């Protein structure tokens, strides 16, 4: 058997309604190199594992499943770093969660063609479609992800270092391809972080550069029941602050890992999360440390918005936003 070029790594949990789309997107890839599919079922309570077994029997030469009897995520295990990556044998790893899927049958070929001819590239990602599970008519391009992102969005292929990491602060995880050797390089730097995809992209980019392909090669589903981003929408201020503090700790770790070489670029990204904490806190916080620095650097209208969020109830802010629309 030829050496595996790409290990497609997929994490699934209670994705019965979505997992076939993910697996079909993997299977239909047309490449001039061998690839494998490593799919981890974290003790799903629905038919997810049963569907994976069906595909395993049909495609035993490329599907390598991992079935858990007990849920590992609830035990604090890092699903990708501690389990899935250890089974990967490819030169590169391609990511896709079990509730997302790939559109383009040449997705892997396009990305590997670029990375094989640009060895200094350490992660490749692309645009995607965002599919709203509450209203399928709201499908749209994932990037730019917000009005703020639109200011920097290139609308063409582009390379990124950590100096300009903030220019695309969000990227569809289902589009990531990166060298497998990075998993070993970063093993001690996978901090418990709610945005592990951002953490991975930053660490990979720090070792070379990230290449963006301006094509929607995959689909990112939103409002999937019990997904992390869906749960976050109901978080109170305490939980939001806890989550943001973990992300900030991760950014500090990346800064130390890179010997502060990209401190200015990471600071721009860090400010975004500091502002979230400020908006959930009392005004006195803007007199303290990095919060003071971030608030001072905020533009005038941004300062007004932060102050309003500190003093007005969330429901009132929501009503104001609705009136502005």
Walk me through this protein's architecture.
The N and C termini lie far apart (58 Å). It contains 13 helices and ten strands. The chain folds into two domains: 6-229, Alpha-Beta Complex (Spore Coat Polysaccharide Biosynthesis Protein SpsA, Chain A); 235-324, no CATH class. The chain is 42% helix and 18% strand. It is globular and about 60 Å long. It has helices spanning 19-27, 48-58, 79-87, 107-117, 147-150, 181-185, 196-206, 228-232, 237-257, 263-279, 289-297, 300-311, 314-324, and strands at residues 6-12, 35-41, 63-67, 92-95, 101-102, 121-132, 140-141, 158-160, 177-179, 209-222. Residues 315-325 have low confidence and may be disordered. The chain has 325 residues and is of the alpha/beta class. α9 (237-257) packs antiparallel against α10. A five-stranded mixed sheet has the order 3-2-1-4-9, sandwiched between helices. Strands 5, 6, 7, 8 and 10 form a five-stranded mixed sheet that branches.
Question: How much beta, percentage-wise?
Answer: 15-25%
CATH superfamily of the largest domain: Spore Coat Polysaccharide Biosynthesis Protein SpsA, Chain A
Largest sheet composition? 5 strands, mixed
CATH topology annotation of the largest domain: Spore Coat Polysaccharide Biosynthesis Protein SpsA, Chain A
- Runs in which pLDDT lies below 50 for 5 or more consecutive residues are 315-325
The CATH architecture category of the largest domain equals Alpha-Beta Complex
SSE-based structural type: alpha/beta
N-to-C order of helices and strands: EHEHEHEEHEEHEEHHEHHHHHH
Total domain units: 2
How far the N terminus sits from the C terminus, by CA atoms, comes to 58 Å
User: How confident is the prediction overall: mean pLDDT?
Assistant: 91
